[in-house]
Design goal:
The protein is α+β, with helices and mostly antiparallel strands. Helices cover about 35% and strands about 30% of the residues. The chain has 5 helices and 11 strands, in the order E-H-E-H-E-E-E-E-E-E-H-E-H-E-H-E. The strands form 2 sheets. Strands 3-5-6-10-8 form a 5-stranded mixed beta barrel. It has a two-stranded antiparallel sheet with strand order 1-11.
């Protein structure tokens, strides 16, 4: 009674596919692991910045990217006539505005934008008071970015009104004619004047990248398993090879 045995004989096309695809999948997995490590480093850096002492805004400031999430303090006078309203901001299901007002710094004469917080919509307008005279503002540095998906809109139409869908520093500088510092202060909850200030805390989460890395490594393993399976051939015992 004759039997069959399995013999390994790699085929050209499956081998080429495996040789091309497996390294690509492994490379993508390693790239995702590197991204996860970058996220961990960012999270560590952000946490360290938040623990640093409050930094007064002076002429000798580091680069804006190094200031992001740092707690800062500024003293100056609000330029209330240059206030803009960021529409459709939600708080506990209610619609409202974020109020953005420039602050003319007393010590340096520079101008920094302050996001003073959220106020509810009342008859399509917010109700708030801008204090006169010298004020002290504390908060966290933020660099505003436009949404990833935004409606096409001509710059002149965007800056024609102080009611905006989102804030960017470039749009504000064009609209106001002011030379502003390259960041915004998210005013602290401890400050007064009736605004709600519950700012989202960004989290540099590495779990997503680790999950993607596992998927890419799994694809590489599946590719090699399929190639190995296609390379096995049944052969009757005693049959010439």
């Amino acid at each position: 009674m004759s039997g069959t045995t399995l013999h390994f004989r790699a085929q050209t096309v499956p081998t080429l596919i495996m040789v091309l695809m497996a390294p690509v999948f492994c490379g993508l997995g390693l790239w995702q692991l590197d991204r996860a490590e970058q996220k961990r480093n960012i999270a560590s850096s952000l946490e360290m910045r938040r623990k640093l002492p409050v930094l007064p805004i002076t002429y000798d400031l580091p680069d804006a990217g190094q200031l992001e999430f740092r707690k800062v303090m500024a003293e100056g006078q609000y330029l209330s006539e240059k206030t803009v309203l960021i529409e459709n901001r939600k708080f506990q299901g209610k619609n409202g505005f974020h109020i953005i007002t420039p602050l003319l710094l007393a010590d340096t004469g520079q101008i920094v934008l302050v996001n003073r917080g959220w106020v509810p919509r009342q008859n399509n307008q917010p109700s708030f008071v801008t204090p006169d005279g010298l004020v002290r503002v504390e908060g966290e540095v933020s660099i505003p970015q436009p949404p990833a998906l935004k409606l096409s809109q001509a710059p002149t139409e965007f800056v024609a009104s102080p009611h905006w869908p989102f804030l960017t520093l470039e749009h504000y500088a064009t609209w106001s004619g002011l030379e502003i510092l390259p960041f915004v202060i998210l005013q602290s909850q401890a400050d007064s004047n009736g605004f709600i200030r519950r700012w989202p805390q960004p989290q540099a989460n590495d779990a997503m990248h680790i999950g993607y890395a596992v998927q890419w490594f799994a694809f590489a393993l599946i590719t090699m398993v399929i190639w190995f399976r296609l390379s096995l051939h049944k052969q009757a015992s005693g049959e010439a090879k």
